[in-house]
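Morning F.,

Quick status update on the modeling queue. The single chain you submitted on Monday has been processed. Sequence for confirmation:
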Amino acid sequence: MFKLENVKFKNILNIENVKLDKNIITAILGSSGGGKTTFLKLLNNMITADRGKITYKGQDIESYDPVALRREVVMMPQDPEIFKGSIKDNFKITEEITDNGSSKNLSYKELLQKVSLTQDLNDNAKILSGGEKQRLALARVMLLKPEVLLLDEPSSSLDHKTEAKIIKMVVDYVRENNRTLIMVTHSPDIAEKFADRIINIEAGKIVTG
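Structure tokens below.
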């Protein structure tokens, strides 16, 4: 699905050659500051490599319309932005800014249940805790039904029990819907338990995987 050849970004990342396959779950591990987030951002052209070539579905990623690409390859950052207003407003705004139309039979309440949020749709989203905001952001990502999910530490604000539950929910969603998941995680245990493939990035280079 993705192929990176001789890709360099500043002094942060230097990838000689790697392929990321469709419909599998890839976990990315590595020390803080090693280039993991940069790696994700390259995959939906949020940043552009200084050198080398990145292809998506066999096509140069630079040839895609950036907006269309990011609707299909959706990234959730470690500290996702929560929109002003209610939880329901967050879902509606997400659909509006991505021109996604309707939620395609996946109700907002169903999404909250999937991410273990018990709040009412009319509750103020800004008063959610850090972990709850991460779960709301995950629900917004699933609302879009992207082909590829890029998740940067999707469970960093969660306790271990909730972390495993939420990651399992995402993994089940990906497998049931034949999607592709590439996630940066701080947890080797999470990677071992849920990923089909583990890539280790250290000092900007892939050392294993």
